[in-house]
Amino acid sequence: MIQEFFTPISESVLQQNNSESSVFESLLIKNIEGQEFPVLEGVKLAIFDVQESRASINNEGTGVGASEIRKELYRLHSGNWTVSIADLGTIKAGNLIKDTYYAVKETVSFLLKNDILPIIIGGGQDLIYANYKAYSQLDQTVNLAVVSPKFNFGNEEEELSSNSFLSKIILEEPCNLFNYANLGYQTYYNSSEEILLIEKLSFEAHRVGVLKDLTIAEPVMRDADIVGIDIGAVRASEAPGNGNANPNGLYGDDICALARYAGISDKVTSFGIYEYNPIFDQNGQTGKLISQMIWYFIEGFSLRTNDYPYGFKDSYYKYLVPFENEVICFYQSDKSLRWWMQVDVNTQSKYKRHVLIPCSHEDYLNAIEQKIPDRWFNACKKMDLS
């Protein structure tokens, strides 16, 4: 069992307890010292933090701020939620960093197999690699969405770190990554070679300026299995608690909206926030923001409609758009009015999970104008169908 990886929640956090029934802490099943490890039957969301910062470049000290986040999260008022939530406590850094990765991988794998969605508080974003490794035991290809100012390719020879985890995932054999999507990258932090590599691999990237229209990010989150957020993607004036904080980036309400998009996605099965460093935080501002991001993720999760149309397409609005040599089939949910487009693939293919690609109404309108949507075209290339 996974309890051997965890230490209980700090008593200093629990001393903030508020007796009001609407306060978030009152809803939680918690791992408290002197009590049995929480029974997870019926639990749908599990929060835990990871005290690992050895591979976090220029941000030593990240991973020890979860108590500050919990203090803020616990005192927030909950929404109108019926979902069962557990706080499992802390995975402390192992003797070797690979020990920490193992604990994270096994924990996430256990939770996924029990239909429990992990909410991870990092630690460095190299932990996304450990999160990804948990999916290798599920024998399925996965989509990864990362909110970060950098792509984090690193050098091929570089050891696994917060700056190189993406290369390690891509080079992993066998590679189970179908799509990587970056939200909020800043061009001057990424070389032209890296930007070209994103295009060559048919991956997806949206500059921070483009995200002034946040609706662009909704189909990306809806297509992701794993979502990781580098708090350094938020501008320093909003989130100073990061050793690599930037003057430019997303605003606080932007990052909360992205967290809500991730929560409401039927496909997202793990969610993590990384690189928070309390050493640099001012008045606990970043800790407050992260607690609100978690709140918004849970709010989104509570509103899931389970309207992914695979297997239930007959009850959806269906639109056929002919091209010169192709016909793209679009589906629109009669519940949420969200859109998907279909890529024809053998149902026995390892890519059958990616037959239906989330898209926007604008993608449908562009298709009518004979402009092939980039997301459809890139999916075809990765399936060797184009």
Report on the architecture of this protein.
Helix 6 links the parallel strand 7 and strand 8. The protein starts with 5 loop residues before the first strand and ends with a helix. The model has no long low-confidence stretch (mean pLDDT 92). It has two domains: 2-302, Arginase, Chain A (3-Layer(aba) Sandwich); 313-382, no CATH class. The protein has helices at 11-14, 66-74, 97-113, 127-135, 165-171, 192-200, 217-222, 252-264, 285-302, 361-368, 374-382; strands spanning 6-7, 28-30, 45-51, 85-92, 117-121, 142-147, 177-185, 204-207, 226-230, 270-274, 317-322, 327-332, 339-342, 356-359. The longest helix is centred in the last third of the chain and has 18 residues, at 285-302. The strands form two sheets. Strands 1, 2, 3, 4, 5, 6, 7, 8, 9 and 10 form a ten-stranded mixed β-sheet that branches. It contains eleven helices and 14 strands. Helix 2 (66-74) packs across helix 9 (285-302). It is globular. By secondary structure, it is of the alpha/beta class.
Describe the structure concisely for a colleague:
By secondary structure, this protein is an alpha/beta fold. The chain contains 11 helices and 14 strands. It starts with 5 loop residues before the first strand and ends with a helix.
